[in-house]
Write a structure and sequence with these properties.
alpha+beta, 19% strand, BirA Bifunctional Protein, domain 2, 427 residues, 14 helices
């Protein structure tokens, strides 16, 4: 949520920033809502002043023993109570409409975010590794997985649940598990994150807090129950909400969490995209890294968090590139995002495997997550950041395609061998 003071004080500047995304802020509508709230507030303040003045006069009359005058004064202001109640209801109604309006506004962009309308304007920052030169025609992960004794079975996934589900068997299931364990250990042991196990169901309040609701409800899987739960679309939701409604002391920051969870997405806006294979599934696993930091340190934390995700790919020796997303391609709640794209020989292109974002105070305001600033002694919003560290299914895809041999066997990356227990997966 954008700072309400900024929205009230500089709506034109906010509108100009959001316009970089292609989002049009209805300044006139906001001003009308704010005028309605102010009018109700002025009316309520006037009525309270009248009530206080009458109470004082009643006290004076009673003090001199004039009960008749006191009774007359009390009777003369009986109408104030219901009028004040109506004025306060009007304030609450206007503020509720302002809050609902504010929930529809995306985050403000940092100045360093490149301009552009779509992914074609994203800026490449750096590359690491050189794609392996193969002396044979590379297979994609679907063909490789199916050749491994039906280790990657989309037909079984469809029988169990429907399209965009997969069943992994035997060595591929073990490789998938090894990837998750490797990433958790790396982030917890080498990068200083605290591993957490979190619920796979989230309340509407938690999803509003991180920005999935109300805008992205169609992308969520709702659970039919009296509680109104949703399946989590990413561990970002439960992990970031660990600080919802909290006031943290400066000595507690930064907080760094890592979690391995399944993620569930309806992919409502992805009709016809990546229908082949494991790139875009309704259910997939991800190792998520989250940081909660002081505002002055969030830009440095963004670079650090991105480097931690890159380390996963470096240790797996998977070629990748880092992209700065442009204004028109950046996510709703993010102020700045780096995408890490891994090389896939089967597609002969780089594909996203991690997205690392700085949300500044956007999520914190929605969650009422604050820290006590020692300089002021007052609670202020923290800054939140998260990133995939990394998507397990896409890492599996990348390992299969980059480590394939001509006979269909798969070399196991050295970093995974202690977890997997072998050096090669035979075709």
């Amino acid at each position: 949520m954008i700072d309400p003071k900024l929205l009230r004080g500089a709506p034109a500047e906010v509108a100009a920033n959001l316009a970089r995304r292609g989002f049009q802020l209805d300044v006139a509508h906001f001003n009308a809502l704010e005028a309605r709230r102010k009018d109700a507030q002025i009316q309520a303040d006037r009525l309270r002043a009248d009530r206080n003045a009458a109470a004082k006069a009643v006290g004076v009359a009673k003090g001199r023993g004039d009960q008749t005058e006191a009774a007359r004064l009390i009777a003369s202001v009986e109408w104030l109570a219901p009028e004040l109640e109506k004025a306060e209801a009007a304030i609450n109604s206007a503020q509720g409409d302002i809050d609902e309006f504010a929930l529809t506004l995306p985050n403000l962009l940092q100045e360093s975010v490149p301009d552009g309308a779509d992914e074609n304007a994203n800026a490449e920052l750096r590359r690491w590794g050189t794609p392996r030169a193969l002396d044979f025609q590379p297979r994609d992960h679907v063909e490789l997985g199916e050749r491994l004794a039906h280790g990657m079975d989309f037909e079984a996934g469809a029988r169990v649940a429907g399209s965009r589900f997969v069943v992994l068997r035997d060595q591929l299931a073990r490789l998938h598990r090894a990837l998750g364990q490797f990433m958790l250990d790396l982030h917890a042991r080498e990068h200083g994150y605290t591993e957490v196990y979190v619920p796979y169901l989230a309340s509407p309040a938690s999803l509003r807090g991180t920005g999935q609701l109300p805008k992205f409800e169609q992308d969520l899987f709702a659970v039919r129950s009296e509680h109104g739960y949703y399946l989590i679309p990413t561990a970002e939701v439960p992990v970031t909400n660990l600080v919802r409604g909290q006031i943290l002391e400066a000595k507690e920051l930064p907080l760094k969490f890592v979690a391995h969870t399944p993620c569930f997405r309806s992919e409502a806006g992805a009709a016809g995209k990546d229908t082949r294979g494991m790139i875009r599934q309704h259910q997939f696993d991800k190792v998520e890294i989250v940081q909660i930091v002081e505002p002055a340190k969030s830009q440095a934390a963004h670079e650090e968090l991105t480097a931690h995700a890159e380390t996963v790919l470096r240790k797996l020796a998977l070629p990748y590139r880092v992209m700065a997303l442009c204004a028109g391609d950046i996510g709703f709640g993010s102020s700045k995002t780096y995408d890490i794209e891994v090389w896939l020989p089967g597609q002969q292109r780089y594909r996203e495997i991690s997205s690392c974002s700085n949300f500044t105070d956007f999520q914190a305001r929605r969650m009422q997550a604050r820290w006590r600033n020692p300089a002021t002694g007052k609670p202020e919003p923290v800054h939140t950041l998260n990133g995939s560290g990394v998507a397990v299914g896409r890492a599996l895809v990348a390992v299969l395609e980059n480590y394939q041999n001509a006979d269909g066997s798969i070399e196991v990356p050295a970093a995974l061998r202690p977890y997997f227990g072998a050096e090669i997966i035979r075709a």
